[in-house]
UniProtKB/TrEMBL annotation:
One of its GO terms (biological process) is xylan catabolic process. It comes from Gynuella sunshinyii YC6258. The active site is at E287, D361, E389. Pfam families: Glyco_hydro_67C (PF07477), Glyco_hydro_67M (PF07488), Glyco_hydro_67N (PF03648). One of its GO terms (cellular component) is extracellular region. This is Xylan alpha-1,2-glucuronidase.
Amino acid sequence: EDGYDLWLRYQTLPESYAKDVNRTIKNLVPGDINDPTRALAIEELQTGFSKMLGKPLPIKSNAGKASLMLLTSEALAQISNDVDTAKLTELGDEGYLLTQAKINNKPVTLIAANSEQGLLYGAFELLQQMQLQTSLKELNHSSSPKIQRRVLNHWDNLDGSVERGYAGSSIWDWWELPGVINPRYKDYARANAALGINGTVLNNVNSKAISLDHRYIEKAAALAEVFRPYGIKVYLSARFNAPMELDGFENADPQNPKVRQWWKDKAKEIYQIIPNFGGFLVKANSEGQPGPGDYGRSHAEGANMLAEALEPYGGIVMWRAFVYSEHDAEDRGKQAYNEFKPLDGKFKDNVLLQVKNGPIDFQPREPYHPLFGAMPNTPLMMEFQITKEYLGFATHIAYLAPLYQEVLAADTFAKGKGSTVAKVIDGSLDGHKLTGIAGVANIGHHRNWSGSIFNQANWYAFGRLAWDPYADSQTIGRDWLALTFTNEEQFTEPTLGMMMRSREAVVDYMTPLGLAHLMATGHHYGPGPWVSDLGRPEWNPAYYHKADKNGIGFDRTKTGSNALAQYSKEVAQSFADPKTMDERYLLWFHHLPWDFKLQSGKTLWQGLVEHYDHGVEEAKAMQQTWQSLKPYVDQERFTDTAQRLQIQVDEAQWWRDASLAYFSHVSGKAIPQGTTPPKHDLQYYIKLSFPYAPGN
Ligand code: BDP
């Protein structure tokens, strides 16, 4: 068990359940396997049945004898009226129905959908339900995605490195493509299609123009070919000044007709070899990337130029709202809103604005981004980070579904109570048709794909929440555990408990009570709250915590940056009073004296120390739980996880000690009595360096 098979392990089923399946499903009527997507559905079913039950299903062509059928709604209507076709229609292009139906008066297990794609999703779901040992007789399950574009963002570079990647180098071998098609590309597509992911951006948002050069388009086309029958579209990150870098143009100004024509020609060239190309993802005027701002043009003008080029072919632009500049450094968290809100309604119909979940940058905890709910006339797309840049890379366990769910369920009050972020991005709040969600992938060439077994859970959870942003992180976690290890409750329940608390543990030992961005320079791994010497103010941890002898925290109320005013009245009010608000966001919004009284009655300083201690205790508790689960886990995955947990315990301690050494130093507060002092003095922690940390 090296983790390669992800959620498609298809372990031999226990005898009693296998009997049940054998009684219900005796053969398979595949339908027209000339369709490549249907052929894959059949192939997957046969792989699954062979592995789980020891043999593939006998293939029958005669519907009269069928026990498992895959039927599109059209085909179904011709042979049976047992299924409500109106209900099927509601499932749209990608939904499916799994049910027991009567066909020719005989009971049949039916996968029905409006498209071949829906049938493929249905086949994966049937196999998942079998792995979870759901009784097939009770199967009556329909599902359709609530979000249209469910996309992974690979931050993969053409030289094979991965920005913020902790699972080895890129799985794309750009050098050998398009000649060599690694079988792993197909396994990648299978794993994603099993979750309903239907798009992938192949290259880093910090992109190179050469990705749009003909040679590289051919390489991307080879991948697109593998992914197409799985329903996965390829997208590319586009460098805004590509006309200059590739073809020597003098500028990349969106008002320049020649530049506009260049993008039109480029789109045409791409669609000639990738007919189902998804479109472009663009990081512009952000962290040194070129963009329309270089010519005094707005983000809307830049995005619309690309949108116009893609429009004839049905392509879209995913334009990122991740911008901040040193010239307006009072509060970095306010800048995206200030820049984009005035552009609401100015984007073309095939543009999605891609917004990170929080206003700063993928921190262990942030409030939701104030743009959600603030741009009703523009479809906003969510960007989550699956790779754990700020949550311990691949060595710490942090199950991210609770983080995702916390943001999706947050109420923006944009149109009154219940205007959740999920409703903003699934289009239901403002009536948008084009909708999307992106996850920055944690995938690399490591045999287990994600660098650690538990990191796979974050990829899985992203996929499930992209399909249904209202899904519950517990259920997702439980399913993942059953698919990945075993569904014995003695294993799943304690492990799920550990997963569900893991993210909060990280918050506690890294950035409790609403603190953020305290990571050391460059690698974002260890603590560096003392760092204050970097070129731009908002690159320094000291800018974010603002701790001195009088207090700590970032004042985002009226007396400070007033970022609170970017939220609706109700949300702003809920965060306005530090005495009554949700303390998980306390120091995000308030600068408070060290002796401020928390709701527990303790002082802020005591509370901070307790959170740090609690984080370390939780890491230790996870380690103990895991040790008790040894009987349920194979040696390889048990040991690998145990080793990582040991690192996590040691590093939780490091984070706690270094942070408390520093905060005690700036505040002049002694470590409270009865609390263990940091192992070393502050200088020791400051001097540690990590020149070869991965992912830079
Ligand atoms: C930051 C990462 C940086 C990315 C940037 C982005 O540190 O590597 O390029 O986000 O999202 O968090 O563009």
